[in-house]
Design a protein that fits this description.
Blueprint lengths: L1 E3 L11 H6 L13 E6 L5 E6 L12 E5 L9 H12 L3 E6 L20 H13 L5 E6 L1 H13 L7 E5 L5 H7 L6 H22 L9 H5 L4 H12 L5 H8 L12 E6 L20 E6 L8 E2 L7 E2 H18 L5
Parallel strand pairs: 1-9, 4-5, 4-6, 6-7, 7-8, 8-9
Antiparallel strand pairs: 2-3, 3-5, 10-11
Length: 337
């Protein structure tokens, strides 16, 4: 169902770009000592994990929340670290999966992460569920990671071992979003992301040389200015898609929302500058397990509320914790300690 969100923007951040940009300027000190782990994938590659505590000391039945970041994100992304802090402060365990190439190390394979790449998520979820079979398992995804999570939940259907999912500011229709991010001031975000993607691809090209599977040169990469061009030249061919259009069509989570059986909260703002209103699904596209909370404002992964600019309320983190607690109550008749 689609319902009106309770989110109220802070009075000093009543603009979608301010909601999107300003959150990164609030410091996010760690409230925990990160535990790093290299997680081996079945294809011979790996991803780097960050736990909010050593997995060797996780108590039985303590909730574990897998955090999926956005495009070119990492543990250093303000929203990811802030969510990990919120999870830790509740006495739960946060587990951030840094996608291929988004950690400290260069990956072995040319294959990259992308909005529809759910294989790595699936392997991690199975690993955590097997290692901690009695611990309730949840996941929260931001932006690209949110699309990835929604697609994964739709693919799993009633086979999912997750107790709940939270999808925040997800580009649920990739084609529409790829176009919208190039319009007006939003083109600034596009340039920032494309610059990072080009640099990462150049680094991989220099490392792999003739083993790099896509015929593209550093000079050709320099000519790429927009996201659709990058996806056409790199993302699609390196991950087995015929074109950017094929990648967008097969990876957009909108078509998977109707197959989700896991209780899922979608947090979305109408004014998200990374996308247009056409991205918002209609009721008929949602399964009964999906609660789509739509707010008039909030920007992209913003959602800052409160009355004091020096003491902002990070609403998305607060709402995520509330949702997990409510699902625990619904499922087991009690909330977490």
């Amino acid at each position: 169902m689609i319902i009106k969100s309770t989110f109220k923007p802070a009075w000093w951040l009543n603009n979608r770009h301010l909601q999107t940009i300003v959150p990164r300027f609030y410091s996010v000190p760690n409230t925990f000592k990160p535990f790093e782990q290299e997680f081996a994938l079945s294809d011979g590659d790996f991803v780097e994990l960050i736990w909010s505590q050593s997995p060797a000391y996780i108590n039985e039945n303590t909730p574990i929340v897998i955090v999926l970041h956005g495009l070119e994100g990492s543990f250093d992304s303000f929203y990811a670290k802030r969510m990990m802090n919120a999870i830790h402060q509740k006495g739960w365990v946060g587990l951030l999966m840094q996608f291929r190439g988004c950690g400290k190390k260069q990956n072995r394979l040319a294959k990259t992460y992308h909005s529809g790449q759910t294989e790595d998520v699936s392997e991690l979820v199975k690993y955590v569920n097997k290692k901690f079979p009695t611990n309730p398992l949840y996941s929260v995804g931001f932006s690209l990671g949110g699309n990835m999570l929604a697609k994964y939940l739709g693919e799993e259907g009633d086979k999912s071992v997750l107790s709940g999912g939270i999808v925040i500011s997800a580009p649920l229709d990739l084609s529409l979003c790829a176009h919208a991010i190039g319009q007006g001031f939003s083109a600034v975000y596009q340039k920032y992301l494309v610059d990072k993607l080009r640099k990462k691809t150049k680094d991989k090209l220099a490392l792999m040389k003739e083993r790099f599977p896509v015929k593209v040169s550093a000079e050709q990469l320099d000519d790429i200015k927009i996201l659709t061009e990058f996806d056409e030249a790199v993302t699609a061919p390196i991950n087995g898609f015929k074109s950017a259009a094929d990648y967008y069509a097969k990876s957009s989570a909108n078509k998977f929302l109707g197959s989700i059986a896991t209780p899922t909260l979608v947090i979305h703002a109408k004014d998200d500058p990374f996308m247009s209103a056409e991205v918002i699904p209609n009721e008929g596209m949602l399964s009964n397990a999906v609660r789509f909370e739509l707010s008039k404002s909030g920007g992209h992964v913003g959602f800052i509320s409160g009355l004091n600019p020096f003491k902002p309320v990070f609403w998305a983190e607060k709402r995520t914790i509330e949702f997990i607690q409510q699902e625990q109550l619904n499922k087991f008749g009690h909330t977490f300690a």
